[in-house]
Every structure is written in C-alpha cells, then in structure tokens.
User: Fold Peptidase C45 from [Actinomadura] parvosata subsp. kistnae.
Amino acid sequence: MSFPTFTSSQTDPRARGKEFGTHLRGRIAANLAGYTDLFAVAGAGAGQVRAWGERALEAIGDWAPAQAEEIAGIAAGAGLEPWQVAVINARTEILAAIDMVGHGECSTSVVLPPDGPPRTVQTWDWHDHLRDAPVLWEYELDSGRVVRTFTEAGTLAKIGVTDAGLGVHFNILRHDSDTADLGVPVHLIARRILDEAATVEEATGIARSARVSASTVITVVTEHQAASIEISPAGVAAIPPGPDGVLLHCNHFLDAGLAAGERHATERPGTYDRFRHLEAHVEGLSGADQNARALAMLSHAPEGAPVCAHPDLTQPLNQRWETLATIGLDLPAGRLRVHQGGPCQVTEATWQTF
Assistant:
C-alpha cells in the first residue's frame, strides 16, 4: 500500500495551486467533508467554521501573500471557495478554538551521529476517518529549490524535505494561551520553512515572525543541526539536541517556560509515556537502517506506551486515533521514506521512497 503522489509542473503560486487542486479535487473535497464532520462532532457549527476560515485566510494573506495566492488557486481547481481551503490548512487552529482534546498523536526522533547523515523517524497519528487525506507532493519554486512533503489534500505542507538539505518533522501541542482568535496556521509556518530556510536559525526566525493562535512543534533538521521549534501564542522556543546528538519530541512542551502552560499534563498523559519509550530505545533509533528505527518505536497500549495507535471503534470519531503513517527523512537524497500505517506493520518492502 502507498500514498498517492503528485508532482507540480507550475512554479507560479496560483497556477501551482490550481493544478494541485484540479488533480486532487475529489480528495480535497473529501478532506474538507471529513474535517467538517470532526468540527461538528466537537461542537462547531458551519457558520462559525466559515468565520474561522475567513479569519485564517486574512492572517495568511497578511503574513504570506504567495501562500494566500496558492490557496486561492487550489480552491479554483477544486471547485471550492478560498475560505474552505483555508479551513483545511487551519484545522489545527480550529480544533484549538473548539478546545477539542484526545489521546492520540505523534512521536518524533532525530539523531545526529558523529559520522553520517541525520537519522530520523516519526509516527503520524490522526483520526481514522481521515486516513485517506494524506498525499505526497513535490513542487519546485522559482528559486529552483525542490520540496517534497507528506501533507493532507489541500494543505500546503506538513512533514517534508528539500533538495537544499533541510527537513521538518511535525507534532501538535496544546497550551493555555491557545485562542479562538485565529492566527497564521502552523502548517503554513512549516511550508515557509521548507520554502525559505537553509538553517535552523532561519527556520526559527520564520516561526517567530508569525502571530499564531494554536501550538505545535516543528523539528527542523539539516546535515549537522537540529532543533525542535516549539510554537505557541505565548512564545517560541528552540530545543537543541543533547550532547549525544539525540533530539526526541512527543506532544508536550520541553521548554521550561512554555511548559508552565502545558495542556497535555492532565489531558494526554500518554505523551510522557511515549517520550520515556523513545528515551529507552535510543540505541535502536540511532541506527542507520530506517526499518530498524521504525521498529524501535513499536509499542502498544495498554501494555506499554501508545506509540503505535489503533482506533477504538466504540468511540465517537473525534476520539478515535490511528497511526496513519511512519516517516523518515533522507536528507542527502532530498527524499522522504514513508510507510502507510504504524510501526507494527513495517517491513523492508512497505517503504515508499518519494
């Protein structure tokens, strides 16, 4: 099994968006419908969701006009309104505004060995009714930079890598400062980092320049550097690897100042169990083999940390979580290695190189 792929032929943002929207029209519509259902179950009506989408589009236009143009192009190609595509891009912000909570989510490991390229892997957990949302998208910028991203249909970027030797992993966070006054979507911060940054410092500067309303952590990796850039309305902090070159992140803040407003401490305590699991398996996570790194993450609840999640079908859709993908960055090649599903399903033959 593999995720669908699309390679853009256009470099102009609006034209690139229209081509993407046209090609993935059905998937984008299905993704929007899936999020509309999720928001409704969590208590948000259609009028409120539209207002949030329009507010997000305004914030995007102020902070990244080219991204607003691309969203308009996607909408034109997919037969939607721009605010509807903005809703897909701002789903993290809308969920924070609704104050929806749950027990799933992602785990990330980055190891910078003394010799050789960075060794990375993450699980991507999300709601099981959205398992058909992911796509792999390659596009080229006017600058000549090529970006490859694992994202959702209609979303400008998520986890990704560039031929300039920079990659990003992505985990959601929750903070007391999260607000319903929608700001720049965190997925668009990831997009600008992929498009513009060459260093961890440049990526951190991009993150600091955005007014956000929801929290996340974007772990940025280059050949010799890495940092987990924790983003919230209360501020931005960059967490470096330890002296051993190991950088781990789950779904709680590691910066001491931002951790004072942590929301997962009582709502998603499994994040701490997952972090301890990663710490206990650093040796496996440090290996050169992608398959072995994924298997080092393997753990199921209730016997252990719920790194590999499977949905409880007795729960409403907003409380069902599944590990939909396992992903590593191949920085020297500028490629992603993606497995559809969780670590418990990984074999040498299941990796998709993109």
